[in-house]
Write the structure tokens for this entry.
Amino acid sequence: MPTAHANGIDIWYERLGPDDPQRLPLVLTHGFAGPSRQWRPELLPLAEKRPLLLYDVRGHDRTTVPSNPADYSLPVFAADLAALLKAIGIERAHIAGNSMGGAIAYMTAVTAPMRTRSIVLVAPGGLGRDVAFFLRACSLPGFGLVARLPRPRGAARNVLRTCFYDARRITPELYEEAERYGNSSFPEFVRALSAGVGIRGVRRSLREAWVARSALYTGPALVVWGREDFVLPLRHLADVHATLRQAQVALIDHCGHMPQAERPDEFLAATLPFLDQAEQAAAA
């Protein structure tokens, strides 16, 4: 698979779907401790409709792991994506992201609005303050050292279950991916998470700086959330909607933190018409 040198690192990416000049590509941005493969359950129907771009965020899987902890920040992640789009010749795209990936999509939109046709924020992190305790605990002093110790074999599977309302909907492929990647990547996960999350939740100064930029993006936005999200609770929606007042909202019943994986049909039913409308509005 190809890599592109962008923003000083080598970024792994993959392009799927039809080569259709009439449709802008949809970028799929993953969350913490989950490489681009976490989007796999819904790739087939998406790839039948439009061009797709998947990539691994810095420090994840096949993309460069930075040596400086300061390189794990939302503005840097957004700069990576903007640089990747430029490096591979994509002038403008729809950008979707789940969890941390939603925060990256938002930050890319407000820092590179000319490259952003629309954004799809799937249970996005960073725009509300509170997060699950097991994530806040990762910011405790010394936890970075603990993260390097061997983890129980089932640890990654247990974390994956917290992202679902109904764990029976977790596919064998997702469990396999969690075990393949989740345990080995845990130290990098802790470093990346600690850059934006403290014991009280999302760091206030960072969140205020992110939200202050919201007026820089006025394009189409869709927020998708599972009503039973235990990682980033639905009450965050009020903060997100206050930040992006133009955003449409799709709530999915009986669904946790990863709607694209747990309820792919409902996710696509909300997302595909939104993308079409965004392109029709641009053409008009």
The longest strand covers residues 9-16. The chain has a mean pLDDT of 84. The beta strands are 3-6, 9-16, 26-29, 52-55, 93-98, 116-122, 197-198, 201-202, 221-226, 248-252.
